[in-house]
Specification:
This protein is an alpha/beta fold. The chain has a single domain, classed as TIM Barrel (Alpha-Beta Barrel). The protein has an eight-stranded parallel β-sheet with strand order 8-7-6-5-4-3-2-9. A two-stranded antiparallel sheet has the order 1-10. Helix 3 links the parallel strand 4 and strand 5. Helix 6 crosses helix 8. The longest helix has 18 residues. The chain is globular.
């Protein structure tokens, strides 16, 4: 393959900081304004924000005539102090208020306890709710054993296949990490997890590597290790908080 790739076109540009992270409401608003300007300038695939930041983000895109999508993660992301019902209800409201994509972390505690029925029911409910909008399901693979990863992927794929069609398959992403898990996560490990996603889903679903991606060179290595990746923004995204700062993202591949 020989072509130029602008990695920004695959980037989900993200701001999820809260007051607990030292960001006052005023500072959050300014950060959202900066996020919107950068998203428009670099022509990213999407931005991802908290539910209460959605209206400011939508307004910023409208003012800039931006083409990027707007995603939300649930309010207590990436933690789990919410019931399944609370998470689903919050996501339902976000969709009603204009969110076009949802980033959703699997119920990690349930998976770690081997309670895969809870995972199946949560993903099934969300899959049905989101419909023809984009859903990115995050596994936090760095926190799981190989056995738990495989079982979690199989369970999610089974839930997504329920009452699904070809058009919805293209709107479902399997994502590796939130970026909050602090254990080292190498590009080789990231590639391994993408191979698991691709194998157990039989290539049906879009893929989003996230966690440990900080440079263009790392992306180039990932692409070399995963030749099955479909390099279009509707089938492949990159989760990284560092690529905007890298600036030089036009690479020959």
């Amino acid at each position: 393959m020989n072509k130029n790739i602008n990695f920004y076109h695959f980037l989900d540009h993200t701001f999820l900081k809260t007051q607990k992270d030292g960001f006052s409401p005023h500072k959050q608003k300014k950060s959202i304004e900066k996020l919107s300007l950068e998203a428009n300038k670099f022509d990213v695939a999407a931005v991802c924000v908290r539910p209460w930041q959605l209206q400011n983000t939508l307004a910023g895109r409208k003012e800039l005539h931006g083409q990027y999508k707007i995603a939300t993660a649930h309010a207590l992301f990436p933690f789990h102090q919410m019931t399944s019902y609370q998470k689903i209800k919050e996501i339902e409201i976000a969709l009603q208020e204009g969110s076009e994509e949802i980033d959703f972390l699997i119920p990690l505690e349930s998976v770690l306890r081997g309670q895969f029925n809870s995972l199946y029911l949560e993903v099934s409910s969300l899959h049905e709710l989101v419909g023809r909008k984009t859903l990115k399901i995050i596994f936090e693979t760095a926190a799981l054993t190989e056995e738990l990863k495989k079982k979690a992927i199989e369970t999610v794929v089974s839930a997504l296949q329920k009452n699904s069609d070809k058009k919805e398959e293209g709107l479902r992403f399997l994502k590796t990490s939130t970026g909050y898990f602090k254990e080292p996560y190498t590009i080789d490990q990231l590639a391994h997890d993408l191979h698991l996603f691709h194998y157990f889903s039989k290539g049906r679903y879009s893929l989003k590597p996230s966690g440990g991606i900080r440079t263009n060179q790392q992306i180039m290595k990932l692409l070399a290790l995963c030749p099955f990746l479909d390099l279009t923004p509707n089938k492949f995204r990159i989760g990284s908080g560092s690529l905007i700062a890298q600036k030089a993202t036009l690479m020959h591949y």
